[in-house]
Amino acid sequence: MADTIVRRKTTQVMVGNVGIGSDYPIRIQSMTNTDTEDVIATTQQIMELADVGSELVRITVNTDKAAQAVPEIVNRLAKYGYDTPVIGDFHFNGHRLLSKTPECAAALAKLRINPGNVGRGQKRDEQFASLIEMAVRYQKPVRIGVNWGSLDQEVLARLFTENQNREIPLSNDMIMREAMIVSAMESVAYAKSLGLRNDQMILSVKVSQCQDLISVYQDIAGKTDLPLHLGLTEAGMGTKGIVASSAALSVILQQGIGDTIRVSLTPLPGAPRTEEVLVGKDILQSLGFRLFTPKVTACPGCGRTSSDYFQRLAQDIQGYLDDIMPKWKTVYPGVESMVVAVMGCVVNGPGESKLANIGISLPGSGEAPVAPVYEDGQKTVTLKGDHIADEFIEIVKQYVERTYGQ
After folding, report:
1. Is 104 part of any known ligand binding site?
2. Spatial distance between the Cα atoms of 52 and 28, rounded to a whole number of angstroms
3. Which CA distances in Å does 47 have to 101, 170, 252, 308, 328?
4. What does this protein do (predicted)?
5. Which of 65, 126, 164, 336 would be a feasible disulfide site paired with 291, CB 3.0-4.6 Å?
6. For residues 342 and 298, what is the distance between their CA atoms, to the nearest angstrom?
7. Is 299 annotated as a binding residue?
8. Which residue, among 147, 75, 160, has the nearest Cα to 116 in the 3D structure?
């Protein structure tokens, strides 16, 4: 259980009004895929992501117009009652954009910099320094985010040369992972020399393969007490991306590593961007690190459940809880810990229903057409007829009011 897992002790960083680090919950982050120059579309998507639970939202800042749009986006969010921290994602020309539009730096809650995409040689140091100096001037935290696909080539070349002189050379993958950590830690040291404090830095070292991600985060966790942002970059689409992200992040989180997460899903055509936030919440809730909404326990179905009635009821209950939670969480403290069981036959139905806070055991094939309801382990009523779903939802509402009402 999560309450027996000791999270790695990290420095605390404030990003806007959101605290990050081991004294705070593991935070969920997402990123827009709108054109940042489109103020209305970007503002709308940030609100959509925040509404489903994203606690920080990153936006691309890649052009002069995008930089100029940032203050207006933040102002619009405030106008609509949103204080979600907005993070600026800078590559290649970030130093120039922030120098030309300092109000962009002032409006953002955090800057995200990839050392491998800042420049080359002396220009790299100058341009990285320019970004850090803007962060220091406006007292903004920075995520130093190293990515496998855009690794600092000078660091990589240096480590490959050193590896050739080892008695037993490391594999190329090991050198790549080492280069990511070296790039991150050298960038941290340089940023500190320019005045950025430990409580203004977050690190990430993202790759796209599960085992590599687990290994690189295990390594860097032993080398720094800065907060770590986790994410399997370019995870992919649909179930492939969900499974890969869940598998990799769960292993790392179970070891007490990680202070923020993002599930980098490629949306299916026409699918909302919000899916990545919902998956992130499900990962944290499934592991027991955080509770967001009541859990619905439902059996997968078998030959005893030839009707799809229990599946439809489980879907209706889950939909009802998702829709009502924004209201419930403000008036019913603790309701997110509730477990509701919707079971399809007599094999596990009564047992699972008794173990849940409230549960219903629907009749399977050949069973009597009745559905006993259990509350806190005790059978309270037996439902029958054509309105079982509506009656059960009403019983759930009454249970919540009675149990979690102040």
Report:
1. no
2. 11
3. 24, 46, 29, 36, 20
4. Converts 2C-methyl-D-erythritol 2,4-cyclodiphosphate (ME-2,4cPP) into 1-hydroxy-2-methyl-2-(E)-butenyl 4-diphosphate.
5. 336
6. 5
7. yes
8. 147
Both tokens of residue 48? 């959509």
CA-CA distances (angstroms) from residue 199 to 43, 112, 140?
28, 15, 10
Q: What secondary structure does DSSP assign to 320-382, as a single string?
A: HHHHHHHHHHHHSTTGGG-EEEEE-STTTHHHHHHHSSEEEE---TTS-S-EEEEETTEEEEE
What CA–CA distance (Å, rounded) separates 199 from 11?
Answer: 6
Q: What is the pLDDT of residues 30-66, one digit of tens each?
A: 999 999 999 999 999 999 999 999 999 999 999 999 9
Phi, psi of 29 (to 5 degrees): -120, 155
Confidence of residue 1 (pLDDT cuts 50, 70, 90): very low
Provide, rounded to the nearest whole percent, the portion of the chain with pLDDT above 90.
87
Gap between the Cα atoms of 388 and 154, Å rounded: 67
The answer to whether 253 touches 230, Cβ cutoff 8 Å, is: yes
Question: Phi and psi for 31 in degrees, rounded to 5?
Answer: -145, 140
Residue 345 annotated in ligand binding: yes
Write out pLDDT tens, residues 156-214: 999 999 999 999 999 999 999 999 999 999 999 999 999 999 999 999 999 999 999 99
DSSP state of 228: B
Spatial separation of the C-alpha atoms in residues 282 and 196, rounded to whole Å: 34
Residues 185, 162: Cα–Cα separation, whole Å: 18
CA nearest to 58, candidates 96, 29, 97, 17:
29
Residue 3 pLDDT level (bands cut at 50, 70, 90):
low
Contact 228, 167 (CB under 8 A): no
Asked if residue 77 lies in contact with residue 47, where contact means CB atoms within 8 angstroms, the answer is yes
Region of residue 253 (phi > 0: left; psi between -120 and 50: alpha; otherwise: beta): alpha
Q: Could you tell me how many residues make up the chain?
A: 406
CA angle 92, 98, 104 (to 5 degrees): 125
Q: For residue 125, what are the contacts with CB-CB under 8 A and spacing of at least 6?
A: 119, 190
51: Cβ–Cβ under 8 A, 6 or more apart, which residues?
274, 326
Tell me: is residue 302 an annotated ligand-binding position: yes
Report, as an integer, the average pLDDT of 84-95: 97
Residue found under tokens 């827009």:
32
Query: Residue 265 gets which letter from DSSP?
Result: E
